Amino acid sequence: MLDALVIAPHPDDAELGMGGTIGVLLGEGLRVGILDLTDGEPTPLGSPEIRARETAAATAALGIGWRENLGLPNRRLRATLAARGLLAGVIRRTRPRWLFAPHWVDAHPDHVAATKLVEAARFWAKLTKCDLPGDPWHPERIYHYGCVHLRTVRRPAFIVDIAATWERKRDSIACYASQFPATARRPTVPERVAAADAWWGSLIGSTHGEPFWTREPVGLRSLQGLV
């Protein structure tokens, strides 16, 4: 059903970490979905209803046709067996080639827990003779995107050129007005993300880029896609 499933601890993490790459994948005709693990609430200026409206607007801005929420608790996200089963069930239902999850080193406990959960659910999704719904499925790769709480910057495995889709990413982030108010302390989160994207892009000769990490080797059949 999906080529890529982006798993986000909270609504807005997918947009912040890889909104441009989502646009690149969609532009290549690939099927991309986002699974938010929690509703991201409570927050100082948000509510479940506000966050749901903002998420719907951001989803439309990105052009995503599949997005769901797993309904796990915000601020208390844990890689429990129950949560693993829920996520494995979604993986078996959507059958993606690739999973995207936050970097495994992060200052936000929810992000760290999310990545542990994704890695465990990927393994569980392929099991036979179990009580999980659907048929066994094992995504080929897990790639890790950066979040705004990432404070340890390691050399990425690769950087995606998002010059052509960066404005779409910017517009999707702007949908989360309750999370990034104009009165926030400068530099704001959107400003920090824009600066980081410009810096990563400069390393590959582009205006904007998004870094990705992987614990597994990356295999290439051709060098023609390199910039």
Question: What is the topological layout?
Answer:
Layout lengths: L3 E5 L4 H15 L4 E5 L11 H15 L3 E4 L11 H14 L3 E5 L6 H16 L16 E5 L12 E4 L4 H9 L14 H15 L5 E5 L14
Parallel strand pairs: 1-2, 1-4, 2-3, 4-5
Antiparallel strand pairs: 5-7, 6-7
Helix pairs in contact: 1-5, 2-5, 3-4
Explain what the structure shows:
It is a single chain. The chain is α/β, with parallel strands linked by helices and 227 residues long. It has a single domain (4-213), classed as 3-Layer(aba) Sandwich (Rossmann fold), CATH 3.40.50.10320. The chain is 37% helix and 15% strand. The protein is built from six helices and seven strands. α1 (13-27) packs antiparallel against α5, α2 packs antiparallel against α5 (166-174) and α3 (81-94) crosses α4. The longest helix has 16 residues, at 109-124. The radius of gyration is 17 Å and the shape is globular. The chain starts with a strand and ends in a 14-residue tail after the last strand.
